[in-house]
Write a structure and sequence with these properties.
alpha+beta, two-stranded antiparallel sheet, 7-stranded mixed sheet, archaeoglobus fulgidus dsm 4304 fold, globular, 28% strand
Length: 180
């Protein structure tokens, strides 16, 4: 499987007391070349991340060429957990969730179930996706892509660190505006 056109998403940093929307950046890569940047906002601890990412991609000039969606973690803007199954189904694209470290799922579950509105539904999405798997010095969760293909994609796009360029660049851009 040759996946050369990908988009990677990350969110902007925000202070703990922030309520409201948080910027989300998507970077579109064709191989090693940055082809475009998409920016929108999602609700802090909300439930609109998948629908926002779907709209961002569908409304972009890149939609016809994209072959894979990468996420820096399963949640944006705090606990706005991305429904990766909805994302995959709506776009007919594989989705690869990447993290540097394996998350503490017990702490995530506790926070979701005790402090976050809609936490039970959000936790069920995380559970349905299954545990993160180690591959190429990172951890992944995936829908619509095999572990071996995920390893190939990570090797191809991890040029400057263990994190693939679409995610690394989205992180840099998202963090460039300071904290929300």
């Amino acid at each position: 499987m040759r996946l050369s056109h990908v988009i990677g998403f990350d969110d902007a940093p925000f202070v703990r007391s922030h309520r409201g929307d948080v910027p989300v950046v998507g970077t579109v890569f064709a191989g090693s070349r940055l082809d475009g940047v998409l920016i929108d906002r999602v609700r802090r601890d909300g439930a609109n991340s998948a629908s926002t990412l779907i709209r961002m991609i569908r409304d972009s000039k890149f939609v016809q060429h994209l072959q894979l969606v990468m996420l820096q973690g399963i949640a944006l803007a705090g606990f706005n957990v991305v429904n990766v199954f909805e994302l995959h189904d709506a776009l007919a694209l594989p989705v690869l969730v990447i993290a540097r470290r394996r998350p503490d799922l017990a702490a995530v579950k506790s926070a979701l179930l005790t402090r976050v509105r809609g936490g039970r539904r959000k936790w069920s999405l995380i559970e349905r996706l299954g545990p993160m798997e180690p591959v190429e010095r990172v951890f992944v969760q995936r829908v619509g892509i095999s572990l071996s293909d995920a390893a190939v994609v990570i090797r191809r796009f991890a040029m400057n660190s263990s994190i693939p360029e679409p995610l690394r660049v989205a992180h840099l851009i998202a963090g460039s505006g300071g904290r929300v």
